[in-house]
């Protein structure tokens, strides 16, 4: 079927489903099931974690800093799901299934944004992948980025003010 992504409603870019465990959930697995259901209407049938355990990542978050400063713990899953797609409009606009090639094109837009080759208006009207999600998509082998490109995106992410409280 493809890879499910959506444009985050506040204009920060496109990403997969995400959320915070401490919202309403007791575990990462419970959060993954709950966030997919809440944000897409789909039911998770299979979860494969990218990491054996949660990982700390220095990244800005609209909710503020984590226990060790800027960033928080992450667990990311590749999921299979079933049901009828019914996106939560408060979370995403333009939710869609994309191919790996489509995803790669979106990463190209992210690089253009990082390099100052897209205006704010161009980014909001046709965003690339959110800065924090590029690394996870690369680790899941869903996209290809070079180490210098990934460093470029990560450095930009750390100074980007659009994802701060």
UniProtKB/TrEMBL annotation:
> What Pfam families does the annotation carry?
NUDIX
Question: What Gene3D superfamilies does the database record attribute to this sequence?
Answer: Nucleoside Triphosphate Pyrophosphohydrolase
Top-level taxon of the source organism: Bacteria
Q: Which InterPro entries match?
A: NUDIX_hydrolase-like_dom_sf (IPR015797), NUDIX_hydrolase_dom (IPR000086)
Domain Nudix hydrolase: from-to ranges: 1-126
This one is known as: 8-oxo-dGTP pyrophosphatase MutT (NUDIX family)
Protein source organism = Actinomadura luteofluorescens
């Amino acid at each position: 079927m493809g890879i499910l992504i959506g444009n985050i409603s506040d204009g920060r870019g496109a990403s997969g489903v995400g959320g915070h465990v401490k919202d309403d959930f007791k575990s990462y697995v419970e959060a993954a099931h709950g966030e997919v259901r809440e944000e897409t209407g789909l039911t998770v049938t299979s979860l494969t974690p990218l990491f054996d355990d949660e990982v700390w990542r220095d990244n800005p978050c609209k909710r503020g800093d984590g226990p060790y400063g800027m960033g928080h713990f992450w667990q990311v899953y590749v999921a299979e799901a079933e049901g009828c797609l019914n996106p939560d409009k408060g979370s995403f606009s333009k939710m869609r299934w994309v191919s790996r090639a489509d995803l790669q094109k979106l990463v190209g837009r992210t690089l253009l944004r990082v390099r100052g080759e897209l205006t704010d208006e161009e980014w909001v009207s046709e965003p690339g992948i959110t800065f924090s999600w590029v690394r996870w998509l690369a680790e899941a082998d869903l996209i290809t980025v070079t180490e210098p490109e990934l460093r470029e995106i990560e450095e930009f992410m750390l100074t980007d003010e659009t994802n701060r409280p």
